[in-house]
């Protein structure tokens, strides 16, 4: 079952409709923005069962995992934004410089216009709609391009959004590479892309031709570090959770593991215990354990098993596209499993003795989207957070930094640019316009070319 491409004419018509709608000022009203978000909230609530079913069909996600990572996180985000958007949308008065005595200055958030949101297949509801929340709150319209790989979810999104919205403020355009090409060739006012680094480069190149601002939420190899002071059983449980959620197909999943040599064997035992607790002794037979998105990705991840020694797991079921949570020791740092983002349940394990080894290894490579450190040593925490640049992460946990609307989420370097969630979403989709209102009650005559003592006064004010 495949998603049909959308014609260039249809794409152009959809964008023109939204541009006309935006130009007429319909999205400027805060009350209209709130009404749109409330409609989006009700749509998600009313179609919870449909969403759960679509994700079960596409990724074999369990009901609990779908609610926690796709539905609940969106509902909480909408509630948070509705509560705070009046404050965020207000013009902010700023200080006046000495050279501007008598004037008033403001920073005024205004929407960009028509936005394009390109979402990936791994969290196809959350990562399609979370940026939409910020775009709408800031007063923009949005066109969503969902992934063609999650067919059932893409079709569901198109159906339920078209039933609630007429396309002027929010519209889904389905298709594959050809449709994405059509979209990237259009005069959008902002592009928000979530996906792989190679495709992110294509998106940025296309946007640069029209000088369209972009947010890129990418990925990379996110390290996880466990030192000798950590609570090993708890660390193993939380790391296993972060790694096996969605069968490892999470952009912020821990990608490789640094274990202090004194706790390596204990950790492996505890990790195995955690997996058994989650999914039983045979995860491949557990209906709650997710599957790999398609055969191409399954074969790619399976090939990593040849890159070293299997420590735990390693069993495969190609018929159902399932793969056991697997710990392995890579042959060396040059093998593919240590060079490419894994995006699956294979987990390379590296042993270390001195923390400087870890810092050097991570900083010599592209900046990761996430970093996770398990320690009870504040000096270790300070050394890692103070010396390694990364998008975001957790101390003594995994994944959970993405759940709170109070923290911005985004990458740095090759792992992305820009951030969103909570107020950061509003800021991302807003241009902050500078406005200075000058007094007419008096005039600083010294600023003009014929001003008396002009040079002396300017030097005093600007020194």
TrEMBL record:
<dbReference type="InterPro" id="IPR015590">
    <property type="entry name" value="Aldehyde_DH_dom"/>
</dbReference>
<comment type="similarity">
    <text>Belongs to the aldehyde dehydrogenase family.</text>
</comment>
<protein>
    <recommendedName>
        <fullName>Aldehyde dehydrogenase</fullName>
    </recommendedName>
</protein>
<feature type="domain" description="Aldehyde dehydrogenase">
    <location>
        <begin position="3"/>
        <end position="435"/>
    </location>
</feature>
<keyword id="KW-0520">NAD</keyword>
<feature type="active site">
    <location>
        <position position="217"/>
    </location>
</feature>
<dbReference type="InterPro" id="IPR016161">
    <property type="entry name" value="Ald_DH/histidinol_DH"/>
</dbReference>
<dbReference type="InterPro" id="IPR016160">
    <property type="entry name" value="Ald_DH_CS_CYS"/>
</dbReference>
<dbReference type="InterPro" id="IPR012394">
    <property type="entry name" value="Aldehyde_DH_NAD(P)"/>
</dbReference>
<dbReference type="GO" id="GO:0004029">
    <property type="term" value="F:aldehyde dehydrogenase (NAD+) activity"/>
</dbReference>
<dbReference type="InterPro" id="IPR016162">
    <property type="entry name" value="Ald_DH_N"/>
</dbReference>
<dbReference type="GO" id="GO:0005737">
    <property type="term" value="C:cytoplasm"/>
</dbReference>
<keyword id="KW-0560">Oxidoreductase</keyword>
<dbReference type="InterPro" id="IPR029510">
    <property type="entry name" value="Ald_DH_CS_GLU"/>
</dbReference>
<dbReference type="GO" id="GO:0006081">
    <property type="term" value="P:aldehyde metabolic process"/>
</dbReference>
<dbReference type="InterPro" id="IPR016163">
    <property type="entry name" value="Ald_DH_C"/>
</dbReference>
<feature type="active site">
    <location>
        <position position="251"/>
    </location>
</feature>
<dbReference type="Pfam" id="PF00171">
    <property type="entry name" value="Aldedh"/>
</dbReference>
